[in-house]
Design goal:
It is rod-shaped, with a radius of gyration of 30 Å. Helix 3 runs parallel beside helix 4 (293-304). By secondary structure, it is α/β, with parallel strands linked by helices. It has helices spanning 57-61, 172-179, 253-272, 293-304, 324-342, and strands at residues 6-12, 45-50, 64-66, 86-91, 94-98, 103-108, 114-118, 149-156, 162-166, 197-203, 208-214, 241-247, 279-285, 310-315. The chain is built from five helices and 14 strands. It folds into two domains: 6-156, GTP1/OBG domain (Spo0b-associated Gtp-binding Protein, Chain: A, Distorted Sandwich); 162-342, P-loop containing nucleotide triphosphate hydrolases (Rossmann fold).
C-alpha cells in the first residue's frame, strides 16, 4: 500500500439548533402561554485510536470532516434532536497538531484512546425559558451557537516490528510481497520503491499482526540527501528487527557483501548509531541464481566476523520461495519471545 504518514484535515463540529418561539393555543385555552422548545446540541468531533489502522491513506482522499447540526426546537415544548457526533478513527501512534496554533494537542498511543477535537455548538433556548411574572408572552429565543472548527495535522509515529534495508534492486519489494500481504511495485530499475511500503505478516502463534516496512533503497551518501535520502528510516525507531536484503547473484560475492554492508551500516551510523544496537539479520536473496552454496556459506561466515552486530543470516529466493518458510518461523518465534519478555 502507498504510505502516508502526514496529512492535514479540516474538522468542524455541528451548530447548535435554534430555540423556538411558539404559544400554546387550544379551544378552551386561547392564551396557554409560551411553549417553544429548545434546540438540540451540535454534534462533537472525536478522534479515536484504532490498532487495525496503520496508515493515513484515507485522509489523503478525504480531508473535510463535519459533524451534524442540532435540530431547531419546536412547539409544544419539543426539544430538537442533538446533532450526531462524528468519530474519526486513526492509527495508534498518531500525533494531533493544531496547525494555526502550532501546538501538539495529543499523542494517541493507547488502543481506543479518544480525544474531543472540536466541540459542538450550544443549543438555543425556546421562549418557554423566558416566561416570568411580568412577561407572560415572551417573544424571545436564542440562536444555537456555531461549533468549533479546526485545521489539524495528523502525523503518524509508526511503530513497525521489522524494518527492511538494502541497496536499490536487491529484491526488497519481492521479499515484502511474498512474506506479507503488501502489494508492491516490482521492476528492474533504480528506486522501484519511492515511498515506504507496509506489509502485514500474520502471526500464527497468537493470531496477531506483525508489521514489516520496506523503505527506498540506500545508496552511498544517502544521509546527505542523495537518492531518496534516509528520512524514512525514522520509522525504525521502535522496530525489534532490522533486515538487510543483499542480492547474492552479483559475480564478485565477497566484494558485494562487504561493500553493501559497509554502505548500509555507514549510512545508518550517520543517521542514528543506536540503530545498530537492534537485532539485525542478513537476508541473502536470489540464491536460485547460484550453484555452489557450500562455497557461499563459507565465504559469508568469514566476512561476517567483521560485522559483530549481525546475529543471523539466511539464504533465500523470494521469487521462487526458497528458504522463506524457515525465515518466517524464525521471525514468529523471535518476536513472540520478545513480546512475552516485554509483557
Amino acid at each position: 500500500m502507498k504510505f502516508f504518514d502526514k496529512v492535514i484535515i479540516y474538522v468542524k463540529a455541528g451548530k447548535g439548533g435554534d430555540g423556538c418561539i411558539s404559544f400554546y393555543r387550544a379551544r378552551f385555552l386561547p392564551k396557554g402561554g409560551p411553549d417553544g422548545g429548545n434546540g438540540g446540541k451540535g454534534g462533537n468531533v472525536y478522534i479515536v485510536a484504532n490498532h487495525n489502522i496503520n496508515n493515513l491513506k484515507n485522509f489523503h482522499y478525504k480531508n473535510n470532516y463535519i459533524a451534524s447540526n442540532g435540530v431547531n426546537g419546536q412547539n409544544r415544548q419539543r426539544t430538537g434532536k442533538n446533532g450526531k457526533n462524528l468519530i474519526i478513527q486513526v492509527p495508534l501512534g498518531t500525533k494531533i497538531i493544531d496547525v494555526e496554533k502550532n501546538i501538539v494537542l495529543i499523542f494517541l498511543k493507547n488502543e481506543n484512546q479518544m480525544f474531543l477535537i472540536a466541540k459542538g455548538g450550544k443549543n438555543g433556548l425556546g421562549n418557554i425559558n423566558f416566561k416570568s411574572s411580568i412577561n407572560r408572552t415572551p417573544y424571545k429565543k436564542t440562536m444555537g451557537s456555531l461549533g468549533e472548527k479546526k485545521k489539524i495535522k495528523l502525523e503518524l509515529i509508526l511503530k513497525v516490528d521489522i524494518g527492511v534495508l538494502g541497496l536499490p534492486n536487491s529484491g526488497k519489494s519481492t521479499f515484502i510481497k511474498n512474506i506479507s500481504s503488501a502489494k508492491t511495485k516490482i521492476g528492474n530499475y533504480i528506486f522501484t520503491t519511492t515511498k515506504p511500503i507496509l506489509g502485514i505478516i500474520k502471526n500464527k502463534l497468537d493470531n496477531s499482526n506483525i508489521s514489516i516496512l520496506d523503505v527506498p533503497g540506500i545508496i552511498k551518501n544517502s544521509f546527505l540527501g542523495k537518492g531518496l535520502g534516509l528520512d524514512f528510516i525514522k520509522y525504525f525507531k521502535y522496530c525489534n528487527l532490522i533486515f538487510y536484503i543483499i542480492d547474492i547473484s552479483i559475480i564478485n560475492i565477497k566484494y558485494n557483501i562487504s561493500n553493501t554492508l559497509d554502505i548500509i551500516s555507514n549510512e545508518i551510523i550517520k543517521y542514528n548509531k543506536n540503530f545498530l544496537l537492534k537485532e539485525q539479520w542478513i537476508i541473502f536473496n536470489k540464491i536460485d541464481l547460484l550453484h555452489n552454496s557450500n562455497y557461499l556459506i563459507s565465504c559469508i561466515k568469514k566476512i561476517l566476523i567483521k560485522y559483530q552486530y549481525i546475529k543471523k543470516f539466511y539464504l533465500i529466493s523470494s521469487k521462487n520461495n526458497i528458504g522463506m518458510k524457515k525465515l518466517y518461523i524464525d521471525i514468529l518465534n523471535h518476536l513472540y519471545k520478545l513480546k512475552n519478555i516485554k509483557y
